[in-house]
Amino acid sequence: MSDNNGSSTGTAEEKKECFKEFVVSDKFKKMIDEAFKKTKAILEQRRDDLNKWEYDQEHEFSTIFGIEGKELITIKYYSPGQQIDPDDAEPMPLNTPSEIEVYAYDFMRDGVERLLGICNKIEVGDRECDKNSIFYRYGNFLNETALKLGAARISKGQTLNALPDKYKERIHVEILHRFKEINRLTGRDSRVSTLCHELSHLVIYKENGVYYGGMGTDDILPQGIKKTNDNYTKHAAGLLQKKSKQVFNNAYNVERYFEIEI
C-alpha cells in the first residue's frame, strides 16, 4: 500500500499491482522536485563563483575548507574495467584506484562541473513501480522514506565504467525517512546540501584522458568511532580546524560548500 507521500509499504507481490500513474497529491514528488531544482541552481551558482574567483570567492573557499585553492591535494580515480571491492572484502590490487595531485581549486571547479553534468542527465519523474525494488521510483529517485536509516544514500559505484550517456539509466538516489524531516530547502543541514553530499560520493572515472563521474568523496570517521551523524559532523569540524587536506575527500566537509542561500 502507499500513502500520500508516495511511500510504498507493501510486499513485492502487492507492488506488482500498483498504479503507474501521476498522483497530483503526491507529496514526495513535490518535495524532491523542489529540492532537485534548487540543487541545480546552487551548483550553477558555485560554478559561477569558481569561474569568477576573485578575493571574495577565494576567501570564502578557504574559510569553508581551511585550505587555499592553490594548495595541492590528492584525489582518487578509477579506470576502465575496475570494480569497487565490498567494504568487508579483502581489497584486490587490480581494483585499487589511481591517485593524482591537483590544486584544491581545480578539484572543486571540475567536481562542481561534473555534478552539474550528472544533474542535467538525471530527472525527477512520475511515480512508477521499480522492478528491482519494493519502493516507488520517481525518475532517478527512489522513495524509501519508510526506511528510518538516515536522510539519503547513493551507491558510489554507479559512475564506474559509465560515460554520461549512461547516467540516466544507471544512477539512482535513495531518499530516506529523515529527508522529510529536514525543514530547510537550502543552507546548513538542508535538503539541497544533503543531495550535494550524496552526489559527491559518486566515484571519479577516467576514460581516454577525460574525468567523468562525481567527486569520489567518502563519509570519513576514525576507526572505532560509532557511525552517527553527530560524530561525522564533529569529525568534519575537526578536519577543518586542523586544516587537513582530507576535507576534500570527506563528504561532510564538501557539502559545506553548497550550504548557501540564493
Automatic annotation (TrEMBL):
Residues 48-259 form the Lysine-specific metallo-endopeptidase domain. SMART domains: Aspzincin_M35. It comes from the Bacteria. GO terms for molecular function: metalloendopeptidase activity. This is Lysine-specific metallo-endopeptidase domain-containing protein. It comes from Salmonella enterica subsp. enterica serovar Lattenkamp. The lineage of its organism: Bacteria, Pseudomonadati, Pseudomonadota, Gammaproteobacteria, Enterobacterales.
